[in-house]
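Lab notebook, bench 4. The sequencing result for the construct came back, and we need a structural model before the next group meeting so we can plan mutations. Quick request posted to the team channel:

Model the 3D structure of this chain.
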Amino acid sequence: MVDEPVKTLEQAIIEQLKTVIDPETGADVWRMRLVENLTVEANGQVTYRFRPSSPFCPIAVSLAQMIKSAVGQVPGVTGQTIEVAGYVRAELLTQLMNRDA
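Done. Here's the predicted structure in token form:
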């Protein structure tokens, strides 16, 4: 059974992700399923995968930064671990996003 405070924090993160809009499509990153495998620990640590809409997405870096910033603004989030997948520079972007995470 999922702890209620964890479920509440997860829901707050999802609501915040719905405010991050992909400028190419005008849709939010949650609805587009660009954020996957969202996991929230009791200590506020958040883990998720960011999958850009294409391997050569020209705005992948800025979208990843917007997502990280949005998640970081949610009260109760103490840290983030981000995996980037399905992108030509996924490993490099993963390293970049997890600096000072």
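The domain at 4-97 is CATH 3.30.300.130 (GMP Synthetase; Chain A, domain 3).
Will bring this to the meeting.
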